Amino acid sequence: MRGGGVSRHRDTPDVVRLLGTLDGQRCDVVVLDLSLGDGTSVTENVRSVLATGSAVLVHSIADRVAAVRESLAAGAAGVIPKSSPMSDVIRAIATVAGGGVLNNVEWASAIEADSDFARAQLGRRERDVLHLYASGLPLKLVASQLGIAHSTAREYLDRIRAKYVEVGRPAPTKVDLLRRAVEDGILPGLDTEGGDARR
């Protein structure tokens, strides 16, 4: 918290309640254990804390790679292993409190352990829409080819863009969507420097 205060609490709802009673003070960083055992999900815990305005630093053991990936995807600013000396933990907290993002081995390992971490998890129909639209078809023709309403195709496109934002790879233009489709293997490699960036 502001002023260097430290407080220990057993579960995320308890922390969130505490943060709501600070009367104008702000807690910069919450160090979150991924092994709370209270029946809540990692995503739920990280997002609950972020909603209070505090950053989240994950405190985890090395073998919880899936949970670490989930916490990073939910918006955690970094990971610090439970085996780290207290001096490293304090430095990590200071980095996150200052608005920085940790770029340490644990984070890199969590991402590299799953090649799908940074991929938008698109459903089959969303992939179909992206394939046709990023290939150059206007959205009306995409809808016609897939036998769906134009408004439905638009909803799919909005969902696709939202999913790319969630994984930190925004695609606001048609050219951006083309790049994402190529990067994720939905389309073969193309020259993405040209093309129509309009929707």
From TrEMBL:
It holds the Pfam family GerE. The modification 4-aspartylphosphate is found at residue 33. Residues 1-97 form the Response regulatory domain. InterPro entries: CheY-like_superfamily, Sig_transdc_resp-reg_C-effctor, Sig_transdc_resp-reg_receiver, Tscrpt_reg_LuxR_C, WalR-like, WH-like_DNA-bd_sf. Keywords: DNA-binding, Phosphoprotein, Transcription, Transcription regulation. PANTHER family: TRANSCRIPTIONAL REGULATORY PROTEIN NARL-RELATED, TWO-COMPONENT RESPONSE REGULATOR. This is Response regulatory domain-containing protein. It comes from Agromyces humatus.
